[in-house]
Design goal:
Blueprint: E1 8-13, H1 20-31, E2 34-37, H2 38-47, H3 51-60, H4 68-81, E3 87-91, H5 97-108, E4 116-121, H6 124-138, H7 146-169, E5 173-177, H8 182-194
Parallel strand pairs: 1-3, 1-4, 2-3, 4-5
Helix pairs in contact: 1-8, 2-3, 4-5, 6-7
The protein binds adenosine-5'-diphosphate.
Length: 197
C-alpha cells in the first residue's frame, strides 16, 4: 500500500471541556477524516426524542456514562454507514476499557487498528470554568450545573483515564498541552498527526 492510501484512525482524548470537539472539527477538514463524536450522536437522538435518545438522556443529565452496549452499538452503526472514508477521528469514544476493546475488535475486522490516541491535558479548574461558560450558551443541561460537571470529571478519572494506559501499553498514546490558543493547540496536533501519515 502506498503512502496516499494509508488509512488513519485517531482517538482524540481528554476530559470534558478539553477541546476535543473543536479540534476534531479542524482536523477532520485538514486530514480529510470523519469525526465521530458519541456525545453529538447521543444529542442528535435526544433532539429527535428517539427511544435511544430517551434512554441516553437519563445518564447524560446526571453526568454519567451511557451503558457500553448501547454506546458501542450506536458507534458500530455509524462506522458501518461510512466504510469508505480515509479514517476516523473518535471524539468522546472510547470512554471505558470495554469500549476500547470493542473498538479494537471492530477495526481489526478491517485489518486496522488505532494509530494514535492523543490526549489533551487540561486541569480541573480550567475545565469547570470552560464548561460553566459554555453552559451559558450551549443549551446543554449537563454544562449548566457545577455538580454535574464535577461528576463528569470524576467519571473521567475513574472510568475513562484507564483508556489512556490501555493504549499507552500498545505504544500509541501521547499527551499534548490543551491550554492556550485554539490555533496554537491545533498546530501541535497537526504536527503530531502529520508525522503519523
Ligand atoms: P463532554 O466531553 O463535554 O463531556 P460529550 O458530548 O462527549 O461531552 O458527552 C456528553 C455525555 O454523553 C456524556 O457525559 C455521557 O453521558 C454521554 N456519552 C458520550 N460519549 C459516551 C461514551 N463513549 N460512553 C458513554 N457515554 C457517553
Amino acid at each position: 500500500m502506498n503512502k496516499e492510501e494509508k488509512r488513519i484512525n485517531l482517538i482524540l482524548f481528554g476530559p470534558p471541556g478539553s477541546g476535543k470537539g473543536t479540534q476534531a472539527k479542524m482536523l477532520e477538514k485538514k486530514f480529510d477524516l470523519l469525526q465521530i463524536s458519541t456525545g453529538d450522536l447521543f444529542r442528535y437522538e435526544l433532539g429527535n426524542n428517539t427511544p435511544l435518545g430517551q434512554k441516553a438522556r437519563t445518564f447524560m443529565d446526571k453526568g454519567q456514562l451511557v451503558p457500553d452496549e448501547v454506546t458501542v452499538a450506536m458507534l458500530k452503526n455509524k462506522i458501518e454507514q461510512h466504510p469508505h472514508v480515509k479514517g476516523y477521528i473518535f471524539d468522546g469514544f472510547p470512554r471505558t476499557l470495554p469500549q476500547s476493546e470493542a473498538l479494537d475488535e471492530l477495526l481489526s475486522t478491517r485489518g486496522e487498528s488505532v494509530d494514535s490516541l492523543i490526549s489533551l491535558v487540561v486541569d480541573d479548574e480550567e475545565i469547570v470554568n470552560r464548561l460553566l461558560e459554555r453552559g451559558k450558551t450551549s443549551g446543554r443541561k449537563d454544562d449548566a450545573n457545577e455538580g454535574v460537571i464535577r461528576e463528569r470529571i470524576n467519571v473521567y478519572k475513574s472510568e475513562t483515564a484507564p483508556v489512556y494506559a490501555y493504549y499507552d501499553q500498545k505504544g500509541c498514546a501521547q499527551e499534548i498541552a490543551g491550554i492556550g490558543e485554539i490555533d496554537e493547540i491545533n498546530s501541535r496536533l497537526n504536527e503530531l498527526i502529520s508525522s503519523l501519515a
